[in-house]
Write a structure and sequence with these properties.
This protein has one domain: Umud Fragment, subunit A (Ribbon), CATH 2.10.109. The chain is 23% helix and 23% strand. The protein is built from five helices and 13 strands. A seven-stranded antiparallel beta sheet has the order 1-2-13-5-6-11-12. The longest helix is centred in the N-terminal third of the chain and has 40 residues. The termini are far apart.
């Protein structure tokens, strides 16, 4: 009987603590590790999404404030060069730009050139952003006789200019020109839209005109601008449609395909 009890106490292979280990990946511990990894993935993915969003936002801000600006034409003062409904790409890096919320200005890589089409802040209204053509730079002498522009005594060929048969007219706002009139102020000087000058452009000042000379409110009336007012040089038209169309959805049905990606000169 004693031998039988001893035999009954002898451990068998199935019940022994020294039996074969469970296969990897099927133990309770391994299951916990797998669950932990799965729970961590969504948190890591969310952080990566936020990081990517911030990077995109930083790149967008750099491009928007320091490299490229967009501008939409909503008046006819620059026709034929620019039409109402033209969407423009403006090179801000060329003229330099101001760091937002500071008085620090990053210098541009080029100076304004006579004939440039530029976006700028006009002196007569801080809420406006305008686009005109640079006609006079420091040291130039400008004059207009019967709609013809004279630069330093020579008549200019301006193929981009639009003229109408509208009657000439005087404007009291043009009397500021007395300050830079060649030879000094004169009592008999009464400038009109089509006849004025000669004016001598002083240092660090610029004179802007619209290409549609008979409808443009420009430097003839509100005067000269400083260098820091330039926002950028217009490069190209990236989209255009007939905004004056009476058809529904003109931005789809009245696209000016021939103007898209045209360079502005």
């Amino acid at each position: 009987m004693a031998k039988r009890r001893a035999a009954n106490k002898k451990p068998g292979p199935a019940g022994s603590g020294k039996g074969k280990p469970a296969p990897e990946g099927k133990s309770g511990k391994s299951g916990k590790d797998g669950a932990g990894k799965k729970s961590e993935r969504p948190r890591g993915g969310f952080r990566e999404t936020i990081k990517m969003f911030l990077q995109v936002a930083v790149v967008f801000m750099i491009v928007r404030f320091f490299l490229i600006q967009t501008f939409v034409i909503d008046s006819g003062s620059m026709e034929r060069t620019l039409l109402v409904g033209d969407f423009l790409l403006v090179n801000r890096a060329a003229m330099g730009s101001e760091i937002p919320l500071t008085d620090i200005r990053i210098p541009g890589y080029s100076e304004p050139r006579r004939g440039d089409v530029l976006v700028f802040d006009p002196p007569h209204d801080d809420t406006l952003i305008l686009v005109k053509r640079l006609i006079g730079i420091p040291g130039d002498t400008l004059e207009m006789r019967d709609k013809i522009l004279f630069l330093n005594g020579e008549a200019q060929d301006e193929p981009y200019v639009v003229l109408t048969r509208s009657r000439d007219g005087a404007d009291a706002a043009m009397m500021w020109q007395q300050q830079i009139l060649l030879g000094g102020p004169r009592d008999d000087y009464w400038p009109t839209r089509d006849n004025w000058g000669p004016l001598v452009i002083p240092p660090e000042r610029y004179f802007m005109l619209g290409d549609n000379r008979d409808t443009s409110l420009d430097g003839r009336m509100w005067g000269l601008i400083e260098r820091w007012r330039f926002e950028g040089r217009v490069m190209a038209i990236y989209f255009s449609y007939n905004r004056d169309s009476m058809r529904p959805f003109p931005w789809l049905r009245e696209i000016r395909w021939g103007r898209i990606f045209d360079r502005v000169r």
